[in-house]
Write a structure and sequence with these properties.
By secondary structure, the protein is mainly beta. It is built from 3 helices and 16 strands. The protein folds into 2 domains: 23-33 and 53-197, SH3 type barrels (Roll); 216-272, Ribosomal protein L2, domain 3, CATH 4.10.950. The radius of gyration is 23 Å and the shape is globular. Helices cover 9% and strands 23% of the residues. A 6-stranded antiparallel sheet has the order 9-16-10-13-14-15, with no helix packed on it. A 4-stranded antiparallel sheet has the order 7-6-5-8, with no helix packed on it. It has a two-stranded antiparallel sheet with strand order 1-4. A hairpin with a 5-residue loop joins strand 14 (168-172) and strand 15.
Length: 272
Amino acid sequence: MNFNKYKRLKKRLDVSFKDFSLNEYLKKLSTKKSKSLGRVNGTIAMRHRGGGLKQNQRNLWNYTDYSKQYCILRSIEYDPGKSSFIGTVQYQDGSFSKIGVGSGNYVNQIMKLHKNSKDKIKTGDFIKLKNVPKGFSIYNVESDPGTGPIYSKAAGTSCYLLTKTPRHAKVQLPSGEEKLFNLNCLVTLGVNSNKYKRFNKKYKAGTNRLLNKRPKVRGVAMNPVDHPHGGGAGKGRPGRPSVSLWGKLTKGVPTRKRNKSNKFILKKRNKK
């Protein structure tokens, strides 16, 4: 966001906003968010956290109720806890909930939860992976049926359906990784909203402080007692491979393990 009051820029948006006055209903869909400030039982669990503005937690719909087949998008709103926009939808029975909004969505748009493959699909609809055409862009992808959106929830991200087998679908994630998913996993068609977020600039250090981020200090600038890279005369190099505060390597080391579920599926295929 542009926090500089002296420099006014037109913010580029890929959605259309419209006011919708239902404050009594919308308040029930959000709860107060307590600040942990990166601490657990008083001890620092995550550094460089603290301060920030007050925020409310918006509770999003997780595709759990299959009886609500049709809904209409009543408003598009900003969520401080997400990089993409969210929207308030109204269902056939009159109830309301909040969902993640995709690029190109507009107010008063009718969305549908598809159950059959014969239905005509459009951007913004909810559909199972087995009914998605190959090469289609999707977001808000479930890891397993009923878990709710897990993958591709950030602004401007999307996944691509590559191939389908009788039991699984091969999906390319925004990172470029290819992963197998159950065909009954629910997804949303299209691309996530706020794709121009990467062009937004932070014009002052106070912007990060409002976003609950505290300053970071380089290890080279510390004393030897505070960091493995500390000490030395002037701006000297650490004289060892880059490590974290606790002495673990930070460059060129795998940061995650291989997915066990995908490994099990591949083993089964090789046996056959």
